[in-house]
Design a protein that fits this description.
Layout lengths: L1 E6 L12 E10 L5 E9 L4 E7 L3 E7 L2 H14 L2 E3 L8 H9 L15 H7 L15 E3 L5 E7 L12 H10 L13 E6 L5 E6 L17 E5 L9 E8 L3 E7 L10 E5 L3 E6 L2 E9 L5 E8 L23 H16 L2 H5 L2 E6 L8 H7 L5 H17 L2 E7 L5 E8 L1 H5 L9 E4 L3 E4 L8 E5 L4 E4 L6 H5 L4 E6 L3 E6 L3 E3 L4 E7 L2 E8 L3
Helix pairs in contact: 5-8
């Protein structure tokens, strides 16, 4: 069990047990390259526990099956917080420090997708991301799908911990040498692509203006190199490189050596953090942008091109506001709400016309209505009332009097929900959804994914996952991939939207009062 970033405190501030031991040590600050004071505490026995505390900074504590495992976990935690503990001059777990310094750091597995498990990715053959990591210097890593390797050619430092080869150590050494620009020593990643059989370098890239972060920046877990496997070019070597730029920004570069051997074919830079989502034929990249007033907004970019569905063919649809109801329609609306509140089923059925439309394919009528909604069961009645409650909550659209398809005159008609009647008659309504107030458009189908936008009430969304599309195959049934206003791609919870062709209710004013002539879904 570990506690990350607890408030720092000196040993005197924590009640110590009789078997607790403490040792003052120093920590290397990754951001500044300077050493700062702190303390290490440990307890051995039935409870093996090690804690590192940076005075005026973070702390990290961990327990383990033995003291060595507790030490390793606690040390890894405080390193992730940006501080590497330095060995004590004497005493105090010195052997464990020696082992930690001499041990090779473990590979850093970097998950790039927020939702998809590796098994699902492999099953779907979407661009494969097995791991994103900063490989060892001068070590060739094979592409999983092509007879090529990629190699990290420098700079020769290891950003995975605060060891002597870290960027922080390199800055510290430059500072000790008196370099006035020690904070900005060049750390640009250099990457080579090598033909596996011959060892010939076929491409080499110097990715200027960035470095793999050293745990003092945000979203460090995304930094690294990872191969992509495109379904359109399954045997082509493609490499993605994510690193930090500036104080907090992050950049992704896509290297396609068979297309361009000297520069990336695609780059995207976020002012803050990047988000990535794999597609069958490329990447979706979510970038943070800082506005002039300091506010942040998110954009979604695509490589190598837009997704298979044609977003340009989906113009934004802005629905007009519903007009106010007439006094007569308002009185009927109030009557409906009273019936719904009282759960007065006979009162509602009495408002239906004798040939009320219930389904496309049935004969209509009150008997079919009762059978369709299974009103003889508790479950059916519960479903019906929930549907009516939702329709009334969404509100009605009123139309002036006219003639119906049979040529019969009627003074006025109201439709629930209002946006069904407001929909343009020349636009296909299939796969259209209407958003609830403040619905979240997210970068991935997960509640923890970044919110790309908060949708206004009645924003029109178009489903982007076509039948057979990889998204429709793996997507959680509780989510929809949609194209939102402004042609932004994202995901919404199904409970936050309503299909345009879902259940609607139409009523007309007759000579004997208002009657419901349709309670139907579909088209």
């Amino acid at each position: 069990m570990a506690t990350d970033h607890a408030p720092a405190q000196s040993p005197a501030q924590s009640p110590a047990q009789s078997d607790d031991s403490y040792e003052r040590i120093s920590f290397l600050n990754h951001a500044t390259g300077e050493e700062v004071p702190g303390v290490m505490g440990w307890r051995e026995g039935a409870e093996n526990r090690v804690v590192f505390q940076v005075w005026d900074g973070p702390s990290f504590a961990a327990e383990g099956v033995d003291l060595a495992s507790a030490f390793a976990a606690a040390r890894a935690g405080i390193v992730r917080a940006g501080f590497t503990p330095q060995p004590p001059v004497d005493g105090g777990l010195g052997d464990l420090f020696t082992e930690a310094e001499s041990a090779a750091p473990p590979p850093r597995v970097q998950p790039v997708l927020w939702l998809l498990a590796a098994a699902i990715l492999l099953a779907l053959l979407i661009p494969v991301l097995a791991r994103a990591e900063v490989p060892e210097w001068n070590k060739r890593i094979p592409f999983p799908n092509a007879p090529y390797d990629y190699r990290y050619d420098g700079p020769n430092y290891d950003s995975r911990d605060g060891s002597r080869n870290s960027a922080a150590r390199m800055r510290h050494e430059a500072k000790e040498r008196g370099d006035p620009d020690w904070l900005n020593i060049p750390l640009d990643p250099i990457v080579a692509i090598v033909e596996r059989g011959s060892g010939r370098v076929i491409a080499r890239y110097r990715l200027e203006g960035g470095q793999f972060c050293d745990h003092e920046d945000d979203n460090c877990d995304l930094d690294g190199l990872f191969p992509l496997v495109l379904s359109t070019e399954p045997q082509e070597p493609v490499l993605a490189v994510v690193r930090h730029v500036g104080a907090h920004g992050q950049r992704i570069s896509v290297l396609r050596p068979l297309a361009d051997a000297t520069k990336p074919v695609f780059e995207a830079t976020a002012d803050f953090a990047l988000g990535l989502r794999l597609r069958r034929n490329g990447l979706d990249v979510i970038v943070d942008r800082a506005g002039s007033g300091g506010e942040a907004r998110k954009e979604m970019l695509h490589w190598p091109d837009a997704p298979a569905h044609d977003r340009a063919a989906l113009p934004d649809i802005i629905l007009p506001s519903a007009p106010p109801l007439s006094p007569s329609a308002s009185a009927f609306d109030a009557r409906l709400r009273g019936i719904a509140a009282a759960r007065d089923l006979p009162g509602f059925v009495a408002l239906l016309t004798d040939d009320v439309l219930v389904s496309f394919g049935g004969n209509g009528g009150k008997a079919e209505f009762s059978e369709y909604w299974r009103l003889d069961s508790d479950t059916g009645r519960k479903t019906f009332w929930a549907t009516l409650d939702r329709l009334l909550a969404q509100g009605a659209w009123i139309e002036a009097g006219g003639q119906d398809d049979d040529g019969d005159s009627f003074p006025q008609r109201i439709t629930y929900p209002w946006f069904f009647a407001a929909w343009p008659g020349d636009v296909d309504a299939e796969n259209a959804f209407i958003a609830d107030e403040d619905a979240a458009l997210r970068a991935a189908p997960h509640d923890g994914a970044p919110v790309l936008a908060r949708l206004p009430r009645a924003a029109v969304l178009r489903a982007s996952a076509e039948e057979g599309n990889e998204v429709s195959e793996w997507l959680d049934p509780g989510w929809l991939e949609v194209v939102a206003p402004g042609r932004a791609l994202g995901f919404v919870r199904q409970e936050d939207v309503m299909p345009l062709l879902d259940t609607r209710m139409l009523a007309v004013e007759t000579g004997t009062g208002w009657k419901i002539e349709a309670f139907v879904a579909g088209d």
